[in-house]
Amino acid sequence: MTYSGVVTVGGPADVHELPDLMISKVAVGPMNNNAYLLRCRATDEQLLIDAAAEPHTLLSLIGESGIASVVTTHRHQDHWSALREVVDATGARTYAGQYDAEGIPVPTDVPVADGDTVRVGRVELTARHLVGHTPGSIALVYNDPHGHAHVFTGDCLFPGGVGNTWKDSKAFESLINDVETKLFDQLSDETWVYPGHGDDTTLGAERPHLGEWRERGW
Fold first, then answer.
1. What total of structural domains would you count in the chain?
2. In 3-state terms, what secondary structure has residue 177?
3. What is the residue range of 56's domain?
């Protein structure tokens, strides 16, 4: 089956099969949050991005093999509402951006800084600190050695724009600058974007609109 990235709350996961990494996307909770389960194909080690809601759904997706770690992309409650239950059930190590960790009630085992590496088995993800939606939001970039990059953006980049900065002009300027310099300037148009809510996109689909986003200011 071809991966589309289109999922619905209560529906099945969609699975993106890469040579070294399996990515399972599921939608959970009243805010239609996306959670992503990453599995290293060489070791079967698993990592969850955003234990957002519905712990029973996430634990069913994880399965009996469990997970080694959970990464929380940012401090907003809709992205960690199931974190305590998932950690208690799996014993997973917790990761979050170093400037958002204090806003997440489940203790962060590994505070993450810009450029840090997060591993799942033999697969390496690079954290990028994107300031504006929250002080410590992080995206995770997987540079697939067999193809283009894949980036998990939390609430910092969506189809059609950057994340909400609540009409704070300084926060918006910070976020769009970080998204441009750390994602668009460094990654190819083919880069697949996995956002915190809704459908996926690519950097190529969004790149022509960066000027429009700056002009509208959100």
1. 1
2. helix
3. 14-216
